């Protein structure tokens, strides 16, 4: 016991530089800098959900560079699965894998070298529920879906699987139309879903679509192409499972969101769109199990809109949204968001605001059903990183959270 305690204190002070950092932190928040030299910006999370800057760790790859807000036009560019952290390096066509020290999640170690993404300009990652496979979308001139075996030495490309998205893109890609948006596995791991934005023009094509793939332990193959209810002009974006329903909330900057229920055989048993009034670019989404609410994030209006969805009827109810007022002269530009499940009584929403490089943190507690009213912190991540000699601009994108297991 005393050995564990001593090594813990030594490594804490090594990573944090100050003994004042105690064990009383609940987890860590990671953000991708998207600077030319890509870095993971690491913050510690207090027990009350607020964040504090710790350090930056280089991935060795290249971020998008200064392309303005939403340089990736995607969701899930940074992903935590169990004790692993996966990151895209779009401008160098590489993926990075890190292992997270679960006792001190601000301590991450790279696993192996960066791997080639299997195409150009990787933008989103998904990991199978069993943690054995990672799949990625590439958005550049070689735009495709590729998958990897996750090994103790890093990510190994499955060379037999290469699904060309046929987007006729450039490096870097010019979107948002005609770029991949997100990917996700079904909870049984047997189907992979990939959202692809269409041209945004119903008469011009290609249509926005969801590509489905069959996944087994030794094979991945294309299954079918689905069209969500926004039809040919749609721009399907982030994928969030709807609890206890077999359905998905897919944001769509053309209207707000789509709801789609996909059966085991790949057929669609429900297909509807949700119009979010006044929306302009609803691109990201997250789910709170504590409040049983979904949160959609609009880049252009800088608004987060909560909704509840009846898991039987899939009837949505929109709740009052919150406008993010920005603290610099740059427009807000809301990018990624994640929910962290602190306890059965308490979730927090972390919303990355690229315009001023802040993370807005909201408390979502049990019994509070009104929507999103409880802002607990405007966390000035960019200013904290810049004060250590870094320089993160409005291209910052990608956000993930790790919570320490209760036994630490
Ligand atoms: C959260 O906890 C930290 C550390 O104890 C404290 O400094 C901060 O004031 C708290 N913030 C809120 C909103 O309670
Ligand atoms: C990483 O790359 C270096 C330099 O190319 C090489 O020497 C090393 O063997 C690689 N490590 C792994 C785990 O592939
Ligand atoms: C592909 O894109 C180029 C310009 O980037 C364009 O000239 C060409 O017509 C496009 N081809 C197709 C098949 O869309
Ligand atoms: C959609 O495409 C058609 C055919 O190319 C074109 O005539 C029309 O102007 C486009 N609409 C918009 C809104 O760009
Ligand atoms: C969903 O609805 C749209 C619009 O009605 C339709 O074009 C599309 O084919 C439907 N998709 C499926 C998979 O049924
Ligand atoms: C969902 O809708 C069904 C059918 O209208 C209704 O019986 C049920 O109470 C609703 N569930 C919730 C949580 O509102
Ligand atoms: C939020 O933004 C919308 C659209 O810009 C505006 O109509 C609305 O009044 C704003 N609400 C608040 C509370 O500022
Ligand atoms: C951090 O530095 C970058 C590069 O100089 C700048 O674009 C950005 O606005 C700065 N961010 C903050 C919050 O000061």
From TrEMBL:
The keyword Signal applies. SUPFAM superfamilies: YWTD domain. It comes from Kwoniella europaea PYCC6329. This is 3-carboxymuconate cyclase. InterPro entries: WD40/YVTN_repeat-like_dom_sf. Gene3D superfamilies: YVTN repeat-like/Quinoprotein amine dehydrogenase. Residues 1-20 form the signal peptide. It comes from the Eukaryota. Keywords: Signal.
């Amino acid at each position: 016991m005393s050995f564990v305690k001593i090594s813990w204190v030594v490594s804490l002070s090594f990573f944090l530089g100050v003994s004042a950092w105690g064990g009383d932190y609940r987890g860590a928040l990671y953000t991708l800098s998207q600077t030319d030299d890509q870095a993971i910006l690491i913050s510690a999370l207090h027990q009350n959900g607020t964040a504090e800057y710790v350090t930056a760790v280089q991935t060795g790859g290249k971020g998008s560079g200064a392309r303005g807000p939403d340089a990736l036009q995607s969701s899930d560019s940074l992903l935590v699965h169990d004790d692993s952290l996966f990151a895209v390096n779009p401008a160098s066509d590489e993926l990075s894998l890190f292992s997270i020290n679960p006792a001190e999640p601000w301590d991450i170690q790279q696993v192996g070298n960066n791997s080639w993404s299997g195409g150009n300009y990787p933008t989103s990652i998904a990991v199978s529920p069993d943690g054995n496979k990672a799949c990625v979308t590439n958005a550049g001139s070689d735009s495709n879906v590729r998958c990897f075996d996750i090994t103790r030495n890093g990510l190994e490309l499955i060379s037999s699987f290469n699904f060309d998205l046929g987007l006729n893109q450039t490096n870097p890609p010019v979107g948002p139309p005609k770029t991949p948006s997100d990917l996700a596995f079904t909870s049984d791991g047997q189907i992979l879903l990939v959202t692809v934005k269409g041209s945004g023009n119903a008469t011009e094509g290609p249509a926005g679509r969801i590509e489905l793939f069959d996944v087994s332990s030794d094979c991945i193959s294309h299954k079918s192409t689905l069209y969500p209810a926004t039809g040919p002009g749609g721009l399907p974006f982030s994928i969030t499972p709807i609890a206890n329903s077999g359905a998905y909330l897919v944001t769509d900057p053309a209207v707000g969101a789509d709801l789609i229920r996909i059966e085991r055989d790949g057929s669609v048993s429900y297909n509807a769109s949700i119009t979010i009034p006044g929306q302009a670019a609803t691109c990201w989404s997250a789910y709170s199990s504590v409040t049983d609410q979904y949160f959609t994030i609009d880049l252009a209006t800088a608004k987060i809109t909560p909704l509840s969805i009846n898991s039987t009827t899939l009837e949505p109810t929109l709740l009052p949204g919150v406008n993010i007022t920005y603290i610099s002269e740059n427009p807000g530009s809301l990018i990624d968001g994640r929910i962290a499940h602190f306890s059965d009584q308490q979730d927090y929403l972390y919303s990355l605001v690229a315009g001023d490089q802040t993370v807005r943190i909201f408390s979502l507690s049990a019994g509070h059903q009104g929507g999103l009213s409880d802002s607990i912190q405007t966390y000035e991540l960019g200013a904290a990183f810049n004060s250590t000699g870094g320089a993160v601009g409005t291209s910052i994108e990608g956000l993930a959270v790790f919570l320490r297991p209760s036994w630490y």
